[in-house]
Specification:
Layout (H helix, E strand, L loop, with lengths): L1 H7 L4 H5 L3 H11 L5 H8 L6 H30 L2
Helix pairs in contact: 3-5, 4-5
Amino acid sequence: MLAEVGTLCGLTAGEAETMTPVQVAHNLFESNPKSSPSDVRKLAEKWSRDPEFLDNVVAHYIVMRMKRTRFSEDAVVDETGD
């Protein structure tokens, strides 16, 4: 399973195996920036079935989405001169 996830994120299975929740969230965000939290959790289950690990991945993913949305909104405001 890790081999297919690693391929999805451009990693080897060995690299995928040693990733932290933050690294997993970052890689999932880069490859799936519009996924729902439940979809992210399903993808993260390929790394680990530990509930705490999965909760941390989803939490970090949500924060990344919120930051990107905020920066996108700021960019729109800056472009209009407001």
